[in-house]
Amino acid sequence: MEIGPLSEWVGALAELIAVAVALFLPYYNERKALHQRLRRYKHIVEQTLNTAAANQLTADYRDFCSFVKITLQLDMDDTAVEILEVGQALITTVGDATTLSFDQLQTVGELRQQLANINA
User: Fold this and answer.
1) pTM of the entire structure?
2) 55 with 105: CB under 8 angstroms?
3) What angle, rounded to 10 degrees, do the helices at 78-94 and 102-116 form?
4) What whole-number distance in Å separates Cα of residue 71 and Cα of residue 35?
5) SS3 state at 75
6) What is residue 98's DSSP assignment?
7) Domain layout of the chain by residue ranges
8) Residue spans of the chain under pLDDT 50
9) SS3 108
């Protein structure tokens, strides 16, 4: 039995590596995109929580409410839903208020801690 020339072995190894990369690359890109999307969601919710904690809700808050409602309907990832549920809890806590009470500010602090505990 002959093992064949070295060039065939190198060619076969290159093909094996190419197939492995072709199979792994889409998975890697999808995971990377998911991670970036989760970081963006967390950043948006975190910014709004910080604004609410400073008692400085502005017109951007209405945009945040729309963002949370729409994104909760579209995103199916468990971590994304967990992040957006913190945003939904903020919306529920704030309600129609423009200035938050002491109890509301305490709840906002608890939501900030809850968001910090989410790994994204």
Assistant:
1) 0.80
2) yes
3) 170
4) 16
5) coil
6) S
7) 35-116
8) none
9) helix
